[in-house]
Specification:
By secondary structure, this protein is mostly beta strands. 9% of the residues lie in helices and 41% in strands. The protein contains three helices and eleven strands. The longest helix is centred in the first third of the chain and has 9 residues. The relative contact order is 0.24.
Length: 204
């Protein structure tokens, strides 16, 4: 079981609520990040809390959705999982790699860690990927690239069952070293949260 390094900010079985939908390209920060991830909150109080509370997620302080559970499976790798999702399930997750962990990854390719699944309940694996778009953006004033990939999700026989989009941000020179963020579960509002984030270590 992965060691927890952050509070479980909420619970709920969210895997069935996820989709591979796309978010709109935005190259500038929004001061009022919206959306709460695969399962959106309907209450005003909870929604407002997501705009004022930040949580350290690897090298970034992010406006956290109330269900986020932050874990660090290995050095330089941070995952945000849907709190309450059973370990045996294909849980909604996005990853942030930092420093040497990010430098060891080819940022021009879709990052899919070992054992990762495509969104949904079928436990489909990623068979192949292709880049569909690339956009220059900024995360806390640091130049970054947002690349969108189309992932082919295959069953045990290798037959494609569906495709999903992975959004992947790469910051080559953040105050904390190279940083890569990969989301194939379409966490609602993550793009806006990243553009409203701050680095946990300030630039010199």
């Amino acid at each position: 079981m992965l060691p927890f390094v952050g509070l479980v900010l909420g619970v709920g079985l969210l895997a069935s609520a996820c989709s591979g939908g796309a978010a709109t390209d935005k190259g500038t920060a929004e001061t009022d990040p919206s959306g709460s991830g695969p399962a959106a909150s309907d209450t005003h109080d909870e929604h407002e809390g997501q705009h004022t509370n930040t949580v350290d997620v690897g090298p970034l302080a992010l406006f956290a959705a109330d269900y986020w559970s932050v874990v660090e499976p290995s050095e330089g790798v941070t995952q945000v999982r849907a709190g309450g999702c059973p370990e045996a399930e294909a849980c909604p997750t996005f990853e942030i790699l930092n420093g040497e962990a990010a430098a060891a990854v080819d940022a021009t390719e879709a990052y899919v860690p070992e054992g990762a699944f495509c969104p949904g309940t079928g436990r489909l694996t990623v068979g192949s990927s292709k880049e569909t778009s690339k956009l220059d953006v900024e995360i806390d004033e640091q130049p970054a690239t947002l690349t969108r990939f189309e992932l082919s999700c295959v069953d045990e026989s290798g037959a494609e069952q569906m495709t999903v989009e992975q959004m992947q941000w790469f910051v080559p020179d953040s105050p904390n070293g190279p940083t890569l963020i990969a989301d194939r579960w379409a966490f609602e509002g993550l793009e806006q949260r990243l553009y409203a984030a701050t680095w946990t270590t300030a630039a010199a």
